[in-house]
Amino acid sequence: MSLILAAEETVSGSLGAVAYGLAAIGPGIGIGLIFGLGVQAIARQPEAEQVAFRYMLIGFALVEALALIGFVVPFVFP
Q: Which regions span the lipid bilayer (predicted)?
C-alpha cells in the first residue's frame, strides 16, 4: 500500500498585513462603542458633558494604542 503525501503548499504574500487586518477589528469595534455610548450618555445627561467627553477621550486613546500595537507586532515578530 503506497502512501501519497500532498505537496507542501507555501503561503505567499504578507501575513503581517493579514494579522493587522484582524487586529484592527477589535479597536474598530471599541471606538464605535466608546463614541456611540458617549453620545448616548451626553444626550441623557447634558450637564455631565465635560466629564463624559473626558472619559471618551481617555478610552479612545487606550483603544487606539491597542490598534498601534497590533500594527507594530507583525513587523517586530515575523
A: 20-43, 55-77
Structural domain count of the chain: 1
Its domain, for residue 65, covers 15-76
C-alpha cell at 62: 487606550
User: Has residue 74 got a pLDDT over 80?
Assistant: no
Integer CA distances (angstroms), 54 to 4, 29, 66, 72, in order: 63, 20, 19, 27
pTM score of the predicted model: 0.70
- Where residue 36 sits, what CATH number does that domain have? 1.20.20.10
CA atoms of 60 and 66, how far apart (whole Å) = 10
CA distance 28 to 9: 33
